[in-house]
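Q: Can I borrow your eye for a moment on a structure tokenisation matter? Would you mind producing a protein record, from residues through to fold? Write it directly below this note and I will take it from there.
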Amino acid sequence: MTKMTLRQLYDNTPLELKKILFNQWQAKQNPKWHPEGNTLKHIVVVTKRAIDKFSNDIDLILSAYFHDLGKMDTYAVSPKSGQPTAYGHEKVSASLVDEFSSWIESMGGNLDKIRYIVKNHMRHKNLDQMRDAKRERFMNEPYFSDLEKFGTIDKGGLFESMDMMSKNLYDRSDDDYRHMIGKRVEFQARGRRWVGVVDFIGINPLHNQFQVTVDRTPVWPVDPDTIKLSPMRPKMFS
């Protein structure tokens, strides 16, 4: 069986669903949990993980594709933390599973299983906080084992837990600029304009210069005041 690519999945997506998907670009996320920066990028990352790790499981792949599509409709900013929130987004996402049920079934998806995973993916994250009886009932639900598999790929960040290079670049970046990691920026350095997706941003102690690493290319010295988000969107569906 030929492995599906994200491009193939996207090309088969109905136009109205594509519009909803790209609308998630506007839904920012709390960088503590999602340094990707916005929900579209997170959906792309998680769907790619599903394709890589569960290439023969269309239910997990489609669950990844749908799981956060309700975030823009529930988007808000917490008055306490000042950070983006999307409470109840999983319910909106589950309703979209029903809205596009015909397409899901045409892709070979199990509608009940996908709806269950999408609707309960936030509940699964609070598993350790449940009372014993409630947790036991939850874990005995028919599709719980599939939900657990989904939980292994629905995690924040642009990097996998084993991608130590990316994690180290993130950890060493300047706190004030870390929200730019994973975003496409432009800036001035060495007398020219640079454009790329940020991997690292901050002072490099080896040469005590402000550095921006874009597309794995370290560039210094950079004047932080010249850094701005690029209006060009990075290529995602490859």
